[in-house]
Every structure is written in structure tokens, then in C-alpha cells.
Amino acid sequence: MKLPELKIGHLVAKVPIIQGGMAIRISTARLAAAVAEQGGIGLIAASGMPFDELRHEIRLARSLTKGIIGINAMVAAREFAGLVRTAIEEGIDLVVAGAGFSRDIFAIGKESGTPIVPIVSSAKLARISESLGASAVIVEGKEAGGHLGTDQSVRTLLPEIKKAVKIPVIGAGGVISGRDIVELLSLGADGVQMGTRFAASVESNAAPALKEFYLKAKPEDVVLIKSPVGLPGQAVKNPFATKILEGTAPLPDSCDACLKHCERNFCIIKALIRAQQGDVETGLVFTGEYIHKIDEILPVKEIFSRLLKEVEEIK
Length: 315
Description:
Pfam families: NMO (PF03060). The protein is built from twelve helices and 13 strands.
């Protein structure tokens, strides 16, 4: 099989793969640029970054590739609008918005002609997104890593949402192999988003200890925790996740006010930063459901090469 191009607004990705935006600081310029250089769409995870750092990351990515670079920002983040405006000022190619839904972002995108791509988990929200001016939607199922908006499989959601809208629909959740890509395309997806596979790449900004931890994960290690954001979060079970599940995680002793609304059952930004820096005991390790299918850390170029070879071999 030959993969189609992915068109989002005026953008055309030669390979219909978007790299998921994984915060805090897992998806930075180096990873996003490596994916864009292979013909996909690379995302810098903006959540948790000061505006100056985001500017630096976008400029660095631009220096590394002429490919398509976007940001992913959590709607739940207090600085969501500021991050989006900062990225647009820097000439970002597109904005992906998840962990909540914002109507205001579409007007911001319209001002600059920047494609806005919300992450949705229902046909209703997909239709609302289209009516507000979304250039595409990412349909995320229960297989995805991090914050989840549904307990349904992307394979169930895709056909329904594809029928509901005319804009491009990108499938996300549990996409690890070429066969997974072909399966989602056959269900109506115009492209796919892959997060976990790229978290476990050479160019990922995760610490070596975190990447090694990914490789040890088994199917039974993946759990749903209650995030302070107010959504379930999919993570690898470790001592910290166990404490969250038991309700014994340490409560925040100080607050950076990183979220618009926080349930304060633990400090998520500090927990994600600890994991990114390699503390797999007291950090929160977000992951997709099929992390166990990844058994080696590869360069992005090699990941693309293997994916395309697998796709090509499928009749």
C-alpha cells in the first residue's frame, strides 16, 4: 500500500503522520524537526513552557527543518491562549489543542490563517469544531497516552466521526506499527497521530532512564489515574502512580497555578517534569496502551523507514 498525503488547510504533509505533542518537554524542537524532516508533522509540546522557551524551541526547530512544525497545547493550561498567540507570532504552521475544548482559539487562528486542530472524542464535538472553523480534527481513543476524553476505542469512534464532518480526520491512540496505520486509514482516517512510539525515540527529550523504563513496561502495567486536570490519564504503573491510585500521593506544598482548574490531588506539572528528567519512581509516566509493543529506542528516520516498509508490504 502507498500512503496518501495529509492535507490540513494549506499544509500538505507527504507522510500522513503527526507526532503527538507530549509534555512536559518530551516533544521539543529536536523531535518535532526530525519528524517534519521525514515528511510528517512534528509537534512541540508547549504546555508548561514559559513563552520565551517556546519561542526558542520553535526557532530551533525551524533551523533544523523546512518541514511542517506545530505546537500542542493543553486547553486546561492557564497560559493556553498565551502559548497559542506566542506560537502564532513565531509563524507556527498549525496548533493542536487537547485536554479540554476552547471555542476562542478558532478566532485566534482565523486572524493569522493558522490551522487549528482540536483533539476530540465524539462526533458532536467534531461537528462543533468544524462549524467553528477547525481545519481538521484528531480523534483520540482510549488507547492514547496522557489525558483521555473517552473510554471508547479509536477504532469505534473513527467511522462515526468521519461521517459527521467534511474536514480531515486524524486517528490517534494505539498506533505503533505500519499495520496500525493501514487499519486506521481503512476505517476512514486521513492520517494518524503517534505519540508513544516517538516518546521512545533517540530524538525524544525524555531522559535515558525514562526511555529504558518505557521498554520494560508490560500490558498489565498500564493504568488510568485521576489527573488534577479533571480527566483520567493513562500512565505506566510505578510507585508514584500507585500512590495516586490509592489516594496517598503527596498533596502540593506550593502551587505554580499552571492549570485553569486544579483538583490538587497532586502536582501534575512537577510529577511530569520528574519523569522527563529520569525519575521513574516519583515521576508520572504518561503512556499509550500499547507501550509494551515497543522494544527498542530508534532514531526517527529509522522509525519512519520501518513504518513505510511495513505499510508497503500490506496489500
